[in-house]
Amino acid sequence: MTKLPLELKHDIIFEAVFELRFEPNIPNGAVFGVIYPIIMEKFPNLSHIPLPILDLPDAVRNSDPQFKYQPLNRLQGEGLSIGIGPRVICFSVLKPYVGWHKWKPIILDILNKLSDKNVIKYIEKTGLRYLNFIDKDVFPLINVEVKVINSTIKTSATTIRTEINEGEYIKALQLANNASMNENGQIKQGSLIDIDITRMKNIQNNDFKFNLETILEKSHSIAKQFFFDILRDNFLEMLEPVYGDNTNG
Length: 249
What we know:
Shape: globular
Number of domains: 1
Number of strands: 14
Structural class: alpha+beta
């Protein structure tokens, strides 16, 4: 295996998200009340933002599958956003990415404490997602080629999505060269490299706590390897990789 960089001097991560979907062990309405003090003890300066979905009646939210795993509240600040719903918790960091060595301990600490509170009956899904954004057409820069009727697609508006199984994990890749991103109120046009690593196997709460760090590290390792495998050498050099002994990811 080719040695991977520790980091990139010109990081293109726009947002990173870790999502945990679970079956609660307590009433839906009590989940936020248990999670809130756990997070605020660690990050007392986060702002509480109730989300618009809260305006929907409970009966609608509970019966419609599209709302089942939606966060109802968000705690935000200090470069971190945590979405909380009756069956989901999402950890999100925006640009500039703080690095895996700083982000992973936050996720571990909060989820271990949540597991101790016996809020979770079992885990349904974990997902680690990286949204990378550049202001260029991505297709000439990556090891991906799309052909239609034996002709390579060369257009200003191309979006593709694929999934690849890797053991218990699924690697999902979405590419688009007609994407837009809102950065500090400014809309920027460019390309998206969206990598999402999911694990769909159910895990009981106690087993999950025991295996949590392994799942996080495996998800991150797959995502990182997948990302660098996609890049062509000239694109990687443009991003100025930094090599060494310890991974910040």
